[in-house]
Amino acid sequence: MTTYDADGITLHKVRDYVWEIPQDESEGMRAPARVLASETLLDEISDDMSLQQLKNATHLPGIQKYALAMPDAHQGYGFPVGGVGATDAENGCISPGAVGFDINCGVRMMKTNLRYEDVRGREEELVEALFENVPTGLGAGGIFEGSVADVNRILQGGVEWALAEDWAVPEDLAHCEDEGKRPDAEPSKVPEEAKQRGRKQVGSLGSGNHFLEVQRVTDVFREDVAREFGLVEDQVVVLIHCGSRGLGHQTCQDYVRDIEKRHSGFVDQLPDRDLAAAPAGSQLAEDYYGAMCACINFAWVNRQLIMHRTRQVFEDVFDRDWEAMEMDLLYDVAHNIAKKEVHEVNGKEKELFVHRKGATRAFPAGRPELPAAYRDVGQPVIIPGSMGAGSYVLRGGENSLSETFGSTAHGAGRTMSRTQAKQDYWGGDVQTDLREQQHVYVKAQSGATIAEEAPGVYKDVDEVVRVSDALGIGDKVARTFPVCNIKG
């Protein structure tokens, strides 16, 4: 097959797993669009509006090379989830819609020296303790509830604030993207209403697809890299997935509205108002970037406090110090973000806004942005699967910089809407099946949440990762499987 047709959009096969929608200037496209997928995944990606949204993204002023859809792509608001778009930081634009409402939604993995046999038979005790101690659900309170002044300090300092307040140890910062702090953060640019929402939610999972999952390592694919990451078969690890909660959502919402009002002529050039973008160099673009970086810091603190509380729960359940269980952070990486990064374009280095919406940074060895611990081996990349499937740890692939601006997938990717999922699945049945058939213990605020996140609503994460590995943008290191899971 050399072409693929989907509802009037024709993709041309560039090579295995690389499909391109050619640039059509008469339609306003400023660059081609590329989809990185197998034919099986392409069938699923083409079932919704992902391809049209990707094509729309090529209209963003200053977009470089091509707009990209990762193997897990699915329909989002304006910009597809699983999308990557790099725009000229001097003459292009920045788009809140290409970042997403949950700014710095991301994942962190914590290692332990426990083995699966240490947890087997205690799953129910562990899941109950985690659910009782880690706030979950829509609008839920947090582990830390402070003042707006506290929120401002979090927005400015990121995980440095958590360290100063004894919620972290220095090694946690050393194993977090950007050491847990965006220096470009400007708390004054975050709306006051967002801060009011955020002050009650520091250290909370939220709802939807956010979760805390205890897992076991089932497979190691690259032993040398796994050794550097500290991963071995049968090891127990903990995966935390959440973002900036109501603070990030309010910030995105307010800036989209402001951009639509103050740069209406600019926005009117775009085929979808949900792509609303501010021109690079404008005051609103600078304000949004400062606010977004502050929200990024908030999200890192959010995951840090959840990890701190998880350490305490493990101490209570297993009756030993977390240090004795070697509950150390492997890595924390964002997957809803726009960052100023320098990349080579047409043989020249250029500063870009790299928008990753449901896409993970995947830098190979040697990039100066990587922590010292991983600079020689490549960045850890964490790809969550569903509650009934494996998750993966990858490392940034050698081809990621040339192919995807240093990016890969962020998860399995949905194939079914939440509304449809609740019609097709009953949460109690999903919970029972997971426990009885796969020995996975799940607890959530409601059965509806479990139904929305049923394993059947997601793409095959094995196939998503296989494509990433084959393209050399994210190399398989290890696979994990759920033991127990708490959700909002």
TrEMBL record:
Catalytic site: 410
Keywords attached to this entry: GTP-binding, Ligase, Manganese, Metal-binding, Nucleotide-binding
Segment forming the signal sequence: none
Residue numbers binding Mn(2+) 2: 241, 335
Catalytic activity, as annotated: a 3'-end 2',3'-cyclophospho-ribonucleotide-RNA + a 5'-end dephospho-ribonucleoside-RNA + GTP + H2O = a ribonucleotidyl-ribonucleotide-RNA + GMP + diphosphate + H(+); a 3'-end 3'-phospho-ribonucleotide-RNA + a 5'-end dephospho-ribonucleoside-RNA + GTP = a ribonucleotidyl-ribonucleotide-RNA + GMP + diphosphate
Residue sites binding GMP per the record: 209-213, 335-336, 384-387, 391, 410-413, 487
InterPro entries per record: RtcB, RtcB-like_sf
Binding site for Mn(2+) 1: 102, 210
SUPFAM superfamilies found in the cross-reference section: Hypothetical protein PH1602
Basic and acidic residues bias spans: 176-196
EC number: 6.5.1.-
GO biological process: tRNA splicing, via endonucleolytic cleavage and ligation
Role: Essential for tRNA splicing and maturation. Acts by directly joining spliced tRNA halves to mature-sized tRNAs. Joins RNA with 2',3'-cyclic-phosphate or 3'-phosphate ends to RNA with 5'-hydroxy ends.
Assembly with partners or alone: Monomer.
Protein name: tRNA-splicing ligase RtcB
Annotated organism of origin: Halorubellus litoreus
